[in-house]
Amino acid sequence: MPNVAEQPSTIRSYYEGLAEGVFRAVTCNACGGYTFPPTGCCEHCGNWDVTPVELSGDATLLLASHNISPACHPRFEKIAPYVYGHIRLKEGPIVQAIVLGVDPTPQALKALFERGPVPVKAETLQMDDLPVLAYRIVG
Amino acid sequence: MTRKLRERIAISGVGCTRFGDLLETPELKGTTIQELTARAVKEALDDAGLTGQDVDAVFAGNAMVHSSQVPGTYSQLSKWTGTQFKAGVHFEAQCSTTNVGAALAAMSIAAGVYDTVLVYGLETTRTKVKGFSPYEREPISHQQTWLWTDMAVNQAYGVPQGYDIFSTYNGLVALGYCRKYGMSIEDFDRSMFELCKTRRLHGSMNPKANIQEKLEDRAKKEGFSDPFDYWRSDKHNPFVAWPSRLLSLVTTADGASAMVITRADLAKGGKSQPVELKGFGINYSDLPWYGEDPTYWEFDRRAIDAAFDMAGIKPTDIDYLHTHDCSHISGICTAEATGYLEPGKGLDAARDGRLRFDGDRPMSTHGGRHAFGHAWGASAGTDTYEAVLQMRGQAGPRQIKKTPEISVIHTHGYAMIGTVVVLGSI
């Protein structure tokens, strides 16, 4: 078999970054907008000229709910039920992701809701077969 | 710029099966997917006074081919529907499938390509093919249903990293609604109870609904004198995504629906009263479906505006509304976006019974996704089916007192394609 060079993949690069605690996005060289998680095209203006960037990981948790057990996906059976949140990144994008640092109970989630938006920090949650993005409540 | 159909388009026939489970529901048990689909198609063709050989083209919709296992649906179903040798295609827009099909049919007719198009949708979200059997089926597990269904959701990042429909579509939207409008969680819970009561009431009056039992009757059977205590019972109605409970959600179903779309001048004098397809809007979005405000969905806004503009209607013209209600709170947000309900007041309207068939803002009189049930690619056609019945005055005990002249049907095709169809009396 001849050696065939593997083509670059934005998706593979994203998860390889996550494994090292790096949160990869792209910014648009036309409108300046962020696309996160990254693709090869600006999600705002459709421009193909984008530049890879690393995000700070700083964010604000706006709202938090939870999922069910067993989880909809077998990857997450071990941690279900988990808290799932609506998050605004410091750089601007809105994302939804697993939230760490609060119990998936009505009592804990109600207390969090009444507290209002809280700061969170991105971290990597290592599942059996894949590193995934999560946000931990700060303080 | 206003986009207009260059030809007046009508729905001249509609059909749909009972929704339920092909392994256990009366009228469905033992039915094959071919015969299920044929049942809906026959009803629609009979309603229009046509046979399968009278249509020019067939748009065959099916979203979850994993369970149905009939790709190439147009040909596999052709001898079951009498449509052999017609033009046709298999398409999907997930849970908007059949109404997107109606819009595609309208476009093809307005373009002069066809005169009459048969659109149908079929889906099995409760059962799948058993082994290699041509007729036996077996249940699908809850996790398997969502694994297959979520294949329509961002597979690069969303699903692999823990995306969860229950929180994204329900819990987080509910919390956004409560925070935006200053509603307490307790008031929200009570409103969801009242809304579910309305949906179940409608289902109890619909012989084709998956669930035909009123919530109050279920509570009584389970030993509760106060149905709200049943509602708040963790055993019977747990939180699936706090503060949203199980009974504010979709129930899965097997089912099929069909409609005949034709030139309005051809529909006149037909067997049944036609209804005009006046306009539509179809806009999509990848995750996240909303920005900082979970009650505002940009793609729905665009679809609503496009449909209303094409149809030449305003919110005050709407007599009957269905919004996609896999998630009851999301359906309320969309109803508010259409202008049918006042922003922030949708749940008050639900609590006051205004969304019932006999209220002044009737919605989802077939029972919606919870009571009527949800068979992904077939469901939008059942929403249209119900609107057509209401506009003909044929909805039986759940008939809206003032026969609707303008109906608006909104569906969310996973994940997500907002689809709005405007129907008008001819």
Can you walk through the features of this model?
The complex is a heterodimer of chains A (139) and B (426). Chain A has helices at 10-19, 106-115; strands at residues 24-28, 34-35, 50-54, 58-66, 83-89, 94-100, 118-126, 131-137. Chain A is mainly β. The radius of gyration of chain A is 17 Å and the shape is globular. The termini of chain A are far apart. The model of chain A has no long low-confidence stretch (mean pLDDT 97). In chain B, the strands form three sheets. A nine-stranded mixed β-sheet of chain B has the order 3-2-4-9-1-10-13-12-11, with helices on both faces. A two-stranded antiparallel sheet of chain B has the order 5-6. In chain B, strands 7-8 form a two-stranded antiparallel sheet. In chain B, a hairpin with a 2-residue loop joins strand 7 (239-241) and strand 8. The longest helix of chain B has 20 residues, at 185-204. The model of chain B has no long low-confidence stretch (mean pLDDT 97). The chains are: A mainly beta (139), B alpha+beta (426). The A-B interface holds A 11, 14, 37, 39, 43, 62-68, 70-76, 82, 84-86, 88, 94-98, 104-106, 109-110, 113, 130, 132-134 and B 142-143, 146-147, 150, 156-157, 159-168, 170-172, 174-176, 178-179, 185, 239-244, 286-288, 290-292, 294.
